[in-house]
Amino acid sequence: MTSAPDQSYGAHARATLALGLPLIGSHLAQMALHVTDTIMLGWYSVEALAAGVLGASSFFVIFILGSGFAQAVMPMVAAALGRGDEAQVRRDTRMGLWLSIAFGVLSYPIFWWSGPILLALGQKPEVAAAGQSFLRIAGLGMIPALLVMALKGYLAALGRTQVVLWTTIAAVFLNILVNWALIFGNWGFPEMGVRGAAWASVISQVATFVILVLYAALLRDLRRFRLFQRFWRPDWAALRQVWRLGWPIGLTGLAESGLFQASALMMGWIGTVQLAAHGIAMEACALAFMVHLGLSNAVTIRVGRADGAGDVERLRRAAIVAIALSAGFGILVVTTFLLAPVPILSLFLDKNLPEAPEIIAIGVVLLALGAMFQMADAMQVIALGLLRGIQDTRMPMWYAAVSYWVIGIPSAYLLAFPMGLGAKGLWLGLVIGLMLAAASLMTRFWRNAPKPVVA
Fold it and tell me: pTM for this structure?
């Protein structure tokens, strides 16, 4: 018997790309936000750049931890839509917003007293002081940033991924304009340096939040969800469910981002040139990863809807298509990394620097290893997206933590230092951790995913 048109693999691929491509663009635009901050602070002064990078990375770690509740909104809304339960869509999204607000409030003291924390972590007093100035302002943006993520998840689950893309792009341009005004004191504004960059981030986050709130509340097709009607009323059952699904997502993200932070720290122990090559190669890998992350978000929505509707065949086909699309793009990236490493590295490097030849030589080796971890990284993030689609987050958190921190980081350390492989060994350790995560998470999905009923 021939599959119905909407169950064909081609139809699944088109639907996944229709959701995924705007989400990929949104992730790339989000990355551009951080890149423009770095560039513009670098134009201002080395001290401002150091404080901004330190402050932004500190903000990001706390943001990743708190984002689990916002990220839980996407699969929960998708499943509710699959069941045709529009009231549950509203309940789950509201409680995701509630928990995001609560996390933002409770985390702010960390930003306010970040100076002593940064000093305790070995930062120079002047950098710690500037970092604290940045974080006291940037911390005000935690609540709108988390609310934006929750609303993006809600809108994406409803298929409104275009607005997610365009608001993120608009935020990039707004951030550049406010940076130009407040970092450098242009157009009659005060010159604020690193504090100007922090205010630019907060203003961009608030503006994005306002746009998404207005879109969600006023668009005719979305009014029936009455998302903000009696927003203050608690819904304890939905709150518990968002909490149950969300906190493991936050810790999983923290484990993964911590893996790469630790790898940069250890690369710094090897040498400055090696750290520079590591940073450039990692930027290239991160750009490619945004594609897999967008596909992962798309398959969370598609699997969540199919799971909510009890459509096992649609769920499994959506999973197969997402894996195939991600693997296909991964093969393209691997081929590019292996055949054209020097042009890729040259995009991020001034060839006139005396260290450039050595950085490129090391970077070529790292990109070859990056070709290996590209596929592993792709499969682990797709597996996480699939598991979130069936609302399985707690055991995947443990799988990821063991893969990254019990296996990956120790392997990287042993290969880089006791075994003397240096930068190559460190990246081999990352490959081992990511491959183990990909294998264990993908195996768990196919074991736990709903099975077709055999007649």
Answer: 0.88
Q: What amino acid is encoded at 199 in this protein?
A: W
Reported as type and span, the H/E element at residue 228 is none
Q: Across all residues in the chain, what is the average pLDDT?
A: 88
- Total domains, the chain: 2
Residue of 107, 104, 134, 129 lying closest to 116 (CA atoms)? 129
Flag whether 119 is in a domain: yes
Residues 297 and 426 in one domain: yes
Predicted confidence (pLDDT) at residue 5 exceeds the cutoff of 70:
no
- Distance between CA 436 and CA 17 in Å, rounded? 27
Token pair of 342 as six digits: 């020097």
- On the CB side of 224, CA atoms within 13 Å amount to 6
Averaged pLDDT, 68-86: 91
Q: Which of 175, 207, 234 is the last residue of a domain?
A: 234
Query: What DSSP designation does 61 have?
Result: H
- pLDDT on residue 355: 76
Complete DSSP assignment for 271-301? -HHHHHHHHHHHHHHHHHHHHHHHHHHHHHH
Q: CA of 351: how far to CAs of 88, 170, 295, 339, in Å?
A: 56, 33, 35, 20
Comparing C-alpha atoms, which of 160, 200, 186 is closest to residue 55? 200
